[in-house]
Design brief:
- Pfam families: DUF6510.
- A four-stranded antiparallel beta sheet has the order 3-4-5-6, with no helix packed on it. A three-stranded antiparallel beta sheet has the order 2-1-7, with no helix packed on it.
- It has one domain.
- It has 91 residues and is mostly beta strands.
- The protein is built from one helix and seven strands; from the N terminus they run H-E-E-E-E-E-E-E.
């Protein structure tokens, strides 16, 4: 294989997998906080909705886990407070 031929696909290749992931109830997903390492189901997060968006904080250290802000045209999703969000493939 030539060095000039890319070995990756563009982001469109992830469309199917991402559609499946974001079409599930994330409250049962297991998340790990980047701040303190606390790992638990997302439903245990402390969620604040008295703002222009929604903020979920870690019940262990109060670190911001997730932010969601919706505007008339877009939705912004910030997950940088989570090391991972594990979603079960079984019902």
């Amino acid at each position: 294989m030539s060095a000039d031929v890319p070995t990756y696909l563009d982001g469109n290749a992830a469309a199917g997998a991402l559609r499946e992931v974001f079409a599930v109830d994330l409250t049962a997903a297991i998340g790990k906080c980047t701040g303190c390492g606390h790992s638990a189901v997302f439903a245990e997060a402390h969620v604040y909705v008295d703002a222009p968006g929604m903020v979920a904080r870690c019940p262990g250290c109060d670190n911001v886990l997730l932010r969601v802000v919706s505007t008339p045209n877009d939705t912004y999703l910030d997950l940088r407070g989570l090391t991972y969000l594990r979603i079960s493939n079984t019902p």
